[in-house]
TrEMBL record:
Signal peptide region: 1-26
Any one GO molecular function term: cellulase activity
Highest taxon in the source lineage: Eukaryota
Coiled-coil region(s): none
Entry annotated with the keyword NAD: no
Domain Glycoside hydrolase family as annotated: residue spans: 67-351
Annotated family: Belongs to the glycosyl hydrolase 5 (cellulase A) family.
InterPro entries: GH, Glyco_hydro_5, Ricin_B-like_lectins
Organism: Salvia divinorum
E.C. numbers: 3.2.1.4
Listed name of the protein: Cellulase
UniProt keyword annotations, A-Z: Glycosidase, Hydrolase, Signal
Amino acid sequence: MMRTKMNHHAILMALFLLQVVAFSNSAPLSTNSRWLVDSVTGKRVKLACVNWPSHLEPMIAEGLDKKPINDIIQKISENGFNCVRFTWPTYMFTRPEYGNLRVSESLDKYNLSAAKAGIAKNNPQILSLTVVELHKTVVGELGKNKVMVVLDNHVSLPTWCCAGNDGNGFFGDAYFDPKEWLQGLAAVATAYKGFPQVVGMSLRNELRGGRQNEPDWYKYMQEGSNTIHAQNPDLLVIVSGLYTDTNLGYLRSKAFEINFTNKLVFEAHWYTFGIPDKAWSDQTNNLCATVTKRARDNYLFLTSAKNSFPVFISEFGIDERGLSVADSRYITCFLAAVAEFDVDWALWSLQGSYILRQGKLNLDESYGILDINWDRLRNPAFVSRLQIVQQINQDFTSKKPTYYKMFHPLSGQCVQIVKNEIVLANCNNASRWDQHQDDSPIKLEGTAECLSVDGDGAAPHVSEDCSSKWKIVSSSGLHLAAQDGKGEYLCLEVNASDSRIVTKKCLCVGNDLSNLRTCADNPQSQWFKLVPANV
Ligand SMILES: *[C@@H]1O[C@H](CO)[C@@H](O)[C@H](O)[C@H]1NC(C)=O
Ligand SMILES: *[C@@H]1O[C@H](CO)[C@@H](O)[C@H](O)[C@H]1NC(C)=O
Ligand SMILES: *[C@@H]1O[C@H](CO)[C@@H](O)[C@H](O)[C@H]1NC(C)=O
Ligand SMILES: *[C@@H]1O[C@H](CO)[C@@H](O)[C@H](O)[C@H]1NC(C)=O
């Protein structure tokens, strides 16, 4: 508390702080039950992040060889991301021989002459910075552009992540000394004091490998959490689970014990690695049911537990060339779940290329939203499907009643009634629906009008006829159906060729999860999710 008369120094300090606040996006964040909030106003803040790696051998944020830093940041913002999950390797902040390397020296060390020429052209001012100074410069520029930052300890030894046996997987592995890791967390938490755009730190990416076990997880993750908080109490402390960040189910039986409150967030990764194309094409609907249930059981349950916490899906993503059946079906299923839970998230990933990854120069990243030259979006249709999850749909502070947006995850659009026509439109402008329980009419909020079935192949319509009762008829929870005049269930569907909404015979419905029935049809066009919203 400052009770003395302000001296000149204090006034300058105050002016400096004002500037810092002016360019920051928000006050420190904290948690209120399962939600992230601005700690001053109490208003909900949602992290809609994209990952940006800076943890590979050169320790240089990817893309600075391709475009000026502010061009890259502008692309992040203009595509609807308000946040970056920015990675760092432990050694960069614990070992001077890593952290004190200048950008030019680090490039020379690996003979990266083309990248060096690219940086000299696009970002010449960074060549003489140390890699730590560069890390802070990137975070500083993100802040000036009102982009929030989550700092993610991705590996210890700077390198590509994450093989089970790469020495970076778990406490005690070849490069993963727990003491040094704690030192690194403390160093980063301290280095980023006074950077209000840095809203949180992730303790460690994708713990894994033969050494992983729950007792060590509790021991070190609790200690790491306390360490970050002790150094920088403004930060959210973001804790990842075992098995490459796919499981936090053990928190049901043993609580996570830390010495602070209102800052703890859990994170998880949700990809479809290991599930072959054939499984997805044979069983799209039941597989979606299975992976969604797994996500609920492993981590989404934390958002509705008695003692609830925010869950940050800090990695998910697909090969944006659209070559994988598994990816294209998983992501549709994923978007429905994430829209429903309205959790915070970070897409993998921003980078169209890597300066050096796994020994290869200028490696293309097919999961990157940007192309290899960082010029334009690799797949604009994919990014546009993220729009509903980039919005806040549920504001827990709002007194307004909940309604539903009828979300079609395959297109990324929502159902809208325009002059009695039923169409797909931007989810910002979705029609508001009421449905009090399953198997009951779906009403347009604030009217006496309901959605009703007209017949196979016909468009459903909205009128005062409220006799159609809509029911979820499949294991995935994503088929909305009502009976036609003959008593047969017809499902909402979007016709892929003309984008019209019709009702058709339901594809691949059936609830028997234990006996995954093969269904060669692709039901994705029939997937709709009633997403709760009140904003
Ligand atoms: C870089 O090039 C020099 C000279 O050609 C060579 O001796 C060295 O092994 C190279 N270093 C790496 C990391 O490729
Ligand atoms: C919490 O734990 C950290 C790390 O062990 C310690 O430095 C700090 O003093 C503790 N804080 C409180 C309030 O007990
Ligand atoms: C939203 O929908 C209404 C009709 O329901 C329409 O008049 C308006 O132009 C739409 N706005 C946008 C931004 O699409
Ligand atoms: C989709 O729309 C086109 C064009 O209106 C029509 O020819 C086709 O039969 C429709 N497909 C289905 C499955 O209803």
